[in-house]
Amino acid sequence: MTEPTPELHAAFSEPTAEAVPWSDVERILASAEIFWLSTVRPDGRPHVTPLPAVWDGGALHICTGDQEQKAANLRRNPHCALSTGTDKLHDGTDVVVEGRAERITGHARLVELAALWKARHDWDYRVLDDTFDDGAGHIALVFAVRPAKVLAFGKKPHSQTRYRFNNS
Asked: Which residues form a coiled coil (predicted)?
């Protein structure tokens, strides 16, 4: 993945603010334990839910039960947003990733991702043909969300930095 160029949005930033470096954003994406996934229900209402994700290869990877609302929403409309950050007003950086969820079904890639989930979240997944199995009979679909746009909100000083990607 080519490193995107940060664009500081001065209208939403304090005068002393600087763009958040992409390396800081990637560090946050790689270390965050929980993200908030926003999808759209068939009737247009939002659906937001917390879940762990894995940043790897320039994408956030998520999984969800095949019968869950978020899976149904992503099958119908793959456009979504994932956000992570802190609950502090004057500390840390919040990050929003907008993109399109694409199902991951390749067995070799699923094996790699299962190992990452184990290493980063201590979750054990068994890889079936094109899904994860949690060992208790729950099947999980795996998706990759490649960023179309990322927003980073610095909080000391307050700033808004935008990164655009060419894969939307």
From this structure: none
DSSP state of 10: G
Provide the pLDDT confidence category of residue 168 given band limits of 50, 70 and 90: very low
Q: 167 pLDDT band (50/70/90 cuts)?
A: low
60's CB contacts (< 8 A; 6+ apart) are: 29, 35, 53, 54, 82, 97, 99, 144, 145, 147
Q: Which H or E run contains 27?
A: helix 22-31
Distance CA 165, CA 148 (A): 5
CATH class of the domain defined by 7-164: mainly beta
The structural domains of the chain, with segments of one domain joined by +, span 7-164
Q: Mean pLDDT score of the chain, rounded to an integer?
A: 94
Residue 58 zone, left/alpha/beta (φ > 0; ψ -120 to 50; rest): left
Count of residues in the chain: 168
CB atoms < 10 A from the CB of 20, how many?
A: 23
Q: Identify the band that residue 136 occupies on the pLDDT scale cut at 50, 70 and 90.
A: confident
Are the CB atoms for 35 and 19 separated by under 8 Å? no
pLDDT tens readout for residues 10-37: 999 999 999 999 999 999 999 999 999 9
